[in-house]
Structures are given as structure tokens and as C-alpha cells.
Design a protein that fits this description.
This protein is elongated. α13 runs antiparallel to α14 and α13 crosses α15. The chain is built from 19 helices and 11 strands. By secondary structure, it is an alpha/beta fold. α3 links the parallel β2 and β3. The protein has a 6-stranded mixed beta sheet with strand order 1-6-5-2-3-4, with helices on both faces. A 5-stranded mixed beta sheet has the order 7-11-10-8-9. It folds into 3 domains: 236 residues, Rossmann fold; 101 residues, Tyrosyl-Transfer RNA Synthetase, CATH 1.10.240; 87 residues, Structural Genomics Hypothetical 15.5 Kd Protein In mrcA-pckA Intergenic Region, Chain A (Roll), CATH 3.10.290.10. 43% of the residues lie in helices and 12% in strands.
């Protein structure tokens, strides 16, 4: 595998993708090929773009010859991770978790090499395979005895909840033990000696290393897991790295600016919306995100960094970022769709798009409904917009005024007659009509499927 850095630690360091690391982790990664893992809890059917930071970490580990394991937490998903939460997570049913596990596994296959011929092919495992089989007595006796409650209470995810009236349940309090146990099982069964995760997981990750050390000997077990930071690399049977919390240049949590992080599922977040999310990042964020979210080489990124300084209006860095991420998540076809939808919306050539693409692109549009019987009865555009459209435009007189100003477009074409009768030809794919007011305001009126 051809890489421009001597080892993956240097690669990640240049990309500002390391927040924490155990002593000697850099030396281990420079001289050995390790098996490493990251866990993904199946709290939803799809991963979101924030998950791409750890995913790209696994991708880079594999690129440098290390063997990646992705744990999809069918077992820990039954418990719920308290990290980053101000209150208890709602418990999911086993069927919901299994459905989420399958969806996440499919998405991971778009990033990692799972081919049989690969010498370091990726593996997906489900921790329900072992957590669902261990008995409570066995777990408390063999695993729980190695944990200090004082240390567990000191975790930020626990302390922040203890300060609230709702507190934290024993269920979520025990999550850190299960995560540590995962590392122990992978260490014993797959010779996995390296764990990665977000910086909010660092305490739990150290707990796993300490558990391995206590169970398998080595340097005398410490009473305080934080003492691991003072040990030499040779004293640690396993190692870890944590990725930083990604924020925008203004300090906002990454992915939250549009009311929730875009997902990696094209049915939830269309390729166009994903493309636009990254295309619209600010100049100060463009280069840091190119480092984190793409496989572009250093020379390419430094060239784009120069373009941000010398020709910011060209937005070359943002275009490249959007294209690279969209291709990685949705493939060449997804990127082609994103670019085509972008061009059609910019030029108002909406007839070239499908109803599905319009729904995925115009996610903030209001929606109305027209029935086939309304069309056969002779419904006018004015009635469809003001009545069936749920008040998109307040009245026929208001619509007349906007039409006279040339401010209304139907499916991208300037409207001239607000009282004309609609036909099914007004509905793209015989499904949807786009009502546009001004340059950016779009509403959708759907033609209800014929029940016959």
C-alpha cells in the first residue's frame, strides 16, 4: 500500500485527528502491524457524518497495513451509552437494534475493504455474540471486581448526569464495564491490541486497557486507571488513540447547523443534501475538513489551502470536499446525482429531476396535496396553492400580485395565469408540482396516488 507518511500515527497527526494517545502508541504503530477496533452503537438505522471521523480512522489504519475491526454494538445498544447525553436514552427493542445493526454494517462496507483476498481485510463483529451469553454472576465476579466505583463515578459522562435531578440509572452506569469487556474479548480472541474512539470515550477506553492489564498480568495493577498515562509503553498490553471532538471554526458542534447531523443513508439525507452540506462550509473549515474527511494527499490539500487564500470566491476547496465525501459515501452515481440536482436547481430546470430527487433536495419545503378527483373537477392553480397547499400563499389576490411581478414559478417556469386549470401534466412524474416564490422559496404540492 502506497502512503506518503512513514506510519499511520504521522498521517493522523498531520490531519489533526489525534486528541489523546497512550504512551508509546506512536512507536507501536511505527514498528508493528496491529489489529484495531472502534465501536458503533446501533442507536439509529444510519450512521451520521460525525461518525465519519472514526470511520476514516479505520480506513487510514487499513491503508497503512493494520487490520480494522468494527464492533456494531448489538449488546451495548441494549444498555445505552450515557456519553454526551443529558438524560437517559430510550431503550430500543431487540428487533429495532437488529435492524439498526444491519443498516450500519452495510454502510461500513462502503468504506472498508472486506474482500477475502485482502491480507488485512476488515471485520464487523456484533458484541451481542458474547454479551448476551455471559451470566450476571460470572460478569460481576470476573470483570466487575476489577473496577473501582470511585473511578467510575469520576467519568465525565457520569458526573454530568449525577449533577442533574434525573441522575443516571445503574443500566447506563454499567456501560463502561461492558465497553471494557469488549476490548478484553477482542484482545483474547482476535489479538486486538488497539482501540480507537472519540475523545468523550477516553475514560472508557482506558478502562478496557486497565482491565486487560489486570486480567493478564504485567505491571502491578493500578488502583487508578488514570495512572496509565504515567506508564511506559512496555508496561501496557494494549494501546489506544482518541479522536478530537470536531467543531466548526465558530465553536459549534460539527453537523448541528442544519438541525441535526446529516446521515449516511441516502433515503434520509439525499446525495444532494450531503453534497450541499460540505459545499457550504466556511473557508476556515474547508481545509481542516479536507484533512479529516477525505483521502486526498498532503500535496493536494496544501494546493487547495492556497486556493482558499488566493481565490476564495472560486470555492475550489469546498467543491473538492463535497465531491470527495459524496463519492465516498454514495459512490460515483450518488455524486453524479448530487451535481445534476445542484445544476438543475441553480438553472431552474426542474423538469429534468425526478419526484424522488426533488423530495430529497427540497427537504425544507412545505407540502400540499391535490387529489385526482380535484383535477377532473377542474381545480385552478390558485385553489391548489391557497387551499390545498395549506396556505403556501395566503389568498388568490396575493397570488395575482406575485404573478404580476413575475415572482412565481411552477416547476421552474414563470407563471402567467393564476386562474388556469391544472392537469396531471403539471406534476413531475405525475407526482409533484414545485411552486417557487422568489429565488429560494420552494413549496411542493403532491398529486395523491389514485386509489383505483
Amino acid at each position: 500500500m502506497s502512503t506518503e507518511f512513514d506510519n499511520v500515527f504521522e498521517d493522523l497527526q498531520w490531519r489533526n485527528a489525534i486528541a489523546e494517545a497512550t504512551p508509546g502508541a506512536n512507536e507501536i504503530l511505527a514498528r508493528e502491524k496491529v489489529t484495531c477496533y472502534i465501536g458503533f452503537d446501533p442507536t439509529a438505522q444510519s450512521l451520521h457524518i460525525g461518525n465519519m471521523v472514526p470511520i476514516m480512522g479505520l480506513v487510514r489504519m487499513q491503508q497503512h497495513g493494520h487490520t480494522p475491526i468494527a464492533i456494531v454494538g448489538g449488546g451495548t445498544g441494549m444498555i445505552g451509552d450515557p456519553s454526551g447525553r443529558s438524560e437517559e436514552r430510550p431503550l430500543l427493542t431487540p428487533d429495532q437494534i437488529n435492524e439498526n445493526v444491519q443498516g450500519i454494517q452495510r454502510q461500513l462496507e462502503s468504506f472498508l475493504d472486506f474482500s477475502e483476498e485482502s491480507s488485512n481485510r476488515a471485520v464487523v463483529v456484533n458484541n451481542a455474540d458474547w454479551l448476551s451469553k455471559v451470566s450476571l454472576i460470572e460478569f460481576l465476579r470476573d470483570t466487575g471486581k476489577h473496577f473501582s466505583v470511585n473511578t467510575m463515578l469520576s467519568r465525565e459522562s457520569v458526573r454530568s448526569r449525577m449533577d442533574r435531578d434525573t441522575g443516571i440509572s445503574f443500566t447506563e452506569f454499567s456501560y463502561q464495564l461492558l465497553q471494557a469487556y469488549d476490548f478484553l474479548r477482542l484482545f483474547e480472541e482476535r489479538n486486538c491490541t488497539f482501540q480507537m474512539g472519540g475523545s468523550d470515550q477516553w475514560g472508557n477506553i482506558l478502562g478496557g486497557i486497565d482491565l486487560i492489564r489486570r486480567v493478564h498480568g504485567g505491571t502491578a495493577a493500578s488502583q487508578d486507571q488514570q495512572d496509565l498515562s504515567r506508564l511506559e509503553a512496555a508496561d501496557l498490553p494494549a494501546h489506544a488513540m482518541a479522536y478530537p471532538l470536531i467543531t466548526t471554526s465558530t465553536g459549534e458542534k460539527f453537523g448541528k447547523s442544519i438541525g441535526g447531523a446529516p446521515t449516511l443513508d441516502p433515503e434520509q439525507t439525499s446525495p444532494y443534501r450531503l453534497y450541499q452540506f460540505f459545499f457550504n462550509v466556511t473557508d476556515p473549515d474547508a481545509v481542516p475538513y479536507l484533512k479529516l474527511f477525505t483521502m486526498l494527499k498532503r500535496e493536494q490539500i496544501e494546493g487547495l489551502e492556497e486556493s482558499v487564500q488566493t481565490a476564495p470566491r472560486e470555492r475550489e476547496a469546498q467543491q473538492t470536499l463535497a465531491a470527495e465525501v459524496t463519492r465516498m459515501v454514495h459512490g460515483d452515481r450518488g455524486l453524479e446525482e448530487a451535481k445534476r440536482v445542484t445544476k438543475a436547481l441553480f438553472s431552474n430546470d426542474l423538469r429534468t429531476l425526478s419526484a424522488r430527487e426533488l423530495r430529497g433536495a427540497l427537504t425544507e419545503a412545505s407540502h400540499g396535496m391535490v387529489r385526482p378527483v380535484d383535477l377532473s373537477g377542474g381545480i385552478t392553480l390558485a385553489s391548489a396553492v391557497t387551499v390545498n397547499g395549506g396556505g403556501m400563499i395566503s389568498s388568490t389576490s396575493e397570488l395575482r400580485r406575485l404573478v404580476d411581478q413575475g415572482a412565481v414559478k411552477i416547476n421552474g417556469q414563470v407563471e402567467t395565469d393564476p386562474l388556469r386549470q391544472l392537469t396531471d401534466e403539471d406534476f413531475i412524474d405525475r407526482q409533484v408540482m414545485v411552486v417557487q416564490r422568489g429565488k429560494k422559496s420552494h413549496d411542493l404540492i403532491w398529486l395523491e396516488p389514485d386509489a383505483r
